[in-house]
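During the reporting period the student researcher (J.K.) took over the structure-prediction task from the postdoctoral fellow and processed the backlog of single-chain submissions. One of the processed entries is reproduced below for the supervisory committee.
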Amino acid sequence: MEMDKLVSLCKRRGFLFQSSEIYGGLNGFWDYGPLGVELKRNVKESWWRDMISGHNDRSTIPGAPSAYEMSGLDSTIIMHPQIWKCSGHYDLFHDFMVDCRETKRRFRHDQVCGRWVKRGDQRVFVAAEEGEQQEEVIQKQALKFFQLRNKDAEQLQWDGPVVSLTTLDSFEAVLGPDAKTVGTLTPPREFNLMFKTFVGALSGEEGAAYLRPETAQGIFVNFKNVVDSTRMRIPFGIAQIGKSFRNEITPRNFTFRSREFEQMEIEFFCHPTQSPAWYQYWRDRRYRWYTDLGLSSDRLRLRDHHTEELSHYSTGTADIEYAFPFLPAGSFGELEGIAHRGDFDLRSHMEGKLDPHTRPLEVEKDAHGQPRWRGSGKDLSYRDDLTNERFVPHVIEPSAGADRATLAFLCEAYCEDEAPDDSGQLQTRVVLKLHPRLAPVKAAIFPLVKKDGMPELADEIYGELKRSFNVFYDEKGAVGRRYRRQDEAGTPYCITVDGQSLKDRTVTIRDRDTLEQVRVKIEDCTSLLRDRVT
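J.K. obtained the following structure tokens:
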């Protein structure tokens, strides 16, 4: 599937628009249109239903080490700035960036790749941003630099494969992306990803605060509040869906890497001795969720992090990854991470903790005179009321991106096949084969013609179905064209009122994927749709 076709469809059908488009757009920000907002809402509601409100918390869940409960939370986007110092974001949440002195462009250090090439006595590392056609871009850049035509490409002597810019010790021989001369890239430097703002009338450091870069910390700092107010017993999970903000150096690949995005996160609290089993449970359960909603296992993988990839607090992390079409062949992009975070977060907010990689602005001394982060001083441990054991729970964190999940479902659903038109001739159609639970519109209702009482009966059906589902009424154009419009929107079923409907109150229901058409009674439409789309 070509990504530009999906991007075009998303704008044409009202799934996604560039933010502030009439003013030239704002890079890294996207608006969801009428169909897109419904699709993303369905993704979030399916996650919430399947993970939080819909499971049976009164018995052992299949595959779970024991019974558990789930609860929700909605914390604020701006929180006390000390939270981000204790969590490590203030000191550690950064990427390395490089600037090009010639083109004035900025790049993430780890998102630039290149290849060594030689012609005559000159050897150059030709760089390009990572992407689907990076090798073609690198060759084109090399030909331009050496003032060669395509037919002279054999004069280029390539030395080794495409590698990341991070593998180089010096940029003296690097030809930056779109640059004309070598050596224009600056050394990499840190760039903090948090958006800074100010609270109240004070605009100095006294009023400084940050838009949250993740929703997780809002859960950790409310751990005690949730325990006291719900009386839930460990093991249990607290879930949250909400906006997060990261000032990405180079947002890219449609909505895959944005500066404003939405997360679906669970912090699952358990006894330290049970945490390895719960980690295994959640990594497997979250993978199944994607396949159950239609992502192909051929393009989905569950990858365990190598030891050198793990965060300093993690004893195990696995990523659920999808082969997005904008990535090079064989490459995968992260959809969700499942991390075994141990007791790092609760302890950090409770008592503070020394980390050799941080440079905290505010520190205090421990009993041995060593510096540490200043924690809240609150007791965030848990006491088991049955055994009277007190401990700091371990945490398993399944953290998913709502925008990335929505994009993956769109990529998976996009399809081009053949279907008969109004004259019976086969024509190519574009169709989004979304899972019925995720489809923005569940059914479209058509009168075959705009006369003979058909619009009135179709409107009656529309009104009845609208009570339970998001449905669409359309009487404009030939029925075949109306089918095509709904196929592009991902609508799984079309209901057509025709002459026979006026005689026996039956309608034709057409299946989007199989194109099968069956007659059903009008009074059975609601129950039939409920069985198929929920």
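The committee noted the following: Residues 180 and 432 are 43 Å apart (CA to CA).
J.K. will present the remaining backlog at the next meeting.
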